[in-house]
Amino acid sequence: MKILHVCSELYPLLKTGGLADVTGSLPQALTKLGADARVIVPGFPAFLNGVISKKLISKIPDKFSATDINLYYGHIPNSEVGIYIIDAKNLYDRPGNPYQDDKGVAYPDNHRRFALLGYLAFLLATGIDDCWKPQVIHGHDWHSGLACAYLRAHEFCTGFKLAGSIFTIHNLAYQGIFPQSIFTELELPDEFYDINGLEFYAQVSFLKAGLFFADKITTVSPTYAIEIQGEEQGCGFNGLLSNRKYDLRGILNGVDKNVWNPETDKIISQNYSNKAIAGKLFCKTTLQEQLGLAIRNDAPLFVVVSRLTEQKGLHLILSELPTIMKLGGQFVLLGSGDEVLENAFKDLAKLHPKSVSVKIGYDENYAHQIIASGDVILVPSRFEPCGLTQLYGMLYGTLPLVHKVGGLADTVIDCTLENLADNSATGFVFEKFNIESFNAALRRAFALYDKKANWKSVQKHAMRQDFSWVNTSQQFMLLYEQVRSL
Ligand code: ADP
Ligand code: GLC
Question: Strand (E) positions, 111-215?
Fold first, then answer.
């Protein structure tokens, strides 16, 4: 089975969030099942410079204002997965992240930059690489939505279907919306600018292209798959998604144990496992020392590794930091994003240097250190399609404290008395998205921390959870079988 993943970021070459972790792992997991999975990405410098054994596959005529377009094929280091890279310097060779300039402003030609990504994925399905042609195109998030539209446009015009298509929603809040006026630039049939097509409230949505034209839709947890069919979490697409509910599946993300494993992690201060956990305390003490926090094992260490956005519910933490400190806890945060949130956390760290430490920025290594050193990882998101840091937390014995929503609800089991009694608990879950409910969960965490034997047994159970990619990739293989071309 030949599968082409279409995406804009991929760990370890380029990452802004969990999407990269998934696109870095899933194709590898599929390869282990015997599939021939490849990836196509825009030619951002990190990709062009990061791949190995790069060779030219095809020169592409100018398109969407891109000139001098070359399609390369190479390999991701230490991976069997092949990667196509669209080298189009005038669209992709820019400072900043894949979507925004270095001042955080979205590039004005994003519609062309990501139309080209979708178009080249489609061209691969037409056979522009003599040696390889996908049977399934699997797009991730709005950046890849037009791949599904170009495939369908070809079918619409010729009656011939080139490849099956799957579209995965990692986050419905990012919708790839552009003014109606850019539609003609996309070179799609006029009929596609329609409520049954890319039109979304008189604008163009690349996300909707994926949701409407893909053969099957998946999202990254079963609960989020249900939530997005309702008005509250549907972001305006709930009607479309509930109409397509038989084509929509929630498949939980996995964790790459080559990257996130306390037994082998080379970044953390000392390795440990659920059988020999002493190294975890060493990690905590080392971090406390490095950050100038009071070196106290009896102080539960609450940690956050997160994009600082509205989605992540961080205002709850800001309100309750005084409670954490009053009850004798410490707090360490790594994140970046919203300037107001960044400043609010920085101010608190200045006020309480012995118990609060805040680092603004993006730092993969430090993320590992914090997650290994913490006692509790806070993920109080307003909504969360899957969430990965709570999974990493569990595997590192850092108990997650989460809002009962999306993938957080599917993966964390609350420390209620009955769950403690039958040894199924893995963390702390609060139901209502408000300060009282969050505060009660915090107090449950403190109460359990005082009962060392109980804490240890929950920790060990959390560390034994299986979030491997095997099950996830098997579920995708079944879907690919349903939509594949011959
Ligand atoms: P989202 O994709 O919504 O940001 P996830 O929990 O799915 O949330 O994934 C976040 C990923 O990004 C995790 O791998 C996490 O460790 C990483 N991450 C988030 N913020 C930072 C940061 N400031 N520095 C390093 N890694 C980060
Ligand atoms: C998105 C979601 C997050 C999910 C990640 C990977 O960024 O916000 O919940 O874990 O994608 O699927």
Answer: 136-140, 164-169, 177-179, 199-200, 203-205
Contact 168, 145 (CB under 8 A): no
Q: Is the pLDDT of residue 37 over 80?
A: yes
Domains annotated on the chain, with CATH = 2-254+469-484 (3.40.50.2000), 278-463 (3.40.50.2000)
Average confidence (pLDDT) over 132-137: 98
pTM of the model: 0.97
Q: Of 383, 390, 389, 380, which Cα lies nearest the Cα of 435? A: 380
Residues 426 and 420: beta-carbon distance below 8 Å = no
Q: Cβ–Cβ contacts within 10 Å for residue 52, how many?
A: 11
Neighbouring residues of 146: CB distance < 8 A, sequence distance ≥ 6: 114, 115, 117, 118, 119, 186, 188, 206, 209
Distance 429 CA to ligand 2 centre (A): 19
pLDDT tens for 105-131 read: 999 999 999 999 999 999 999 999 999
Rounded to the nearest angstrom, the distance between the alpha carbon of 55 and the centre of ligand 2 is 32
Beta carbon of 118 within 6 Å of any ligand 2 atom: no
Residues 115 and 153 sit within 8 Å (Cβ to Cβ): no
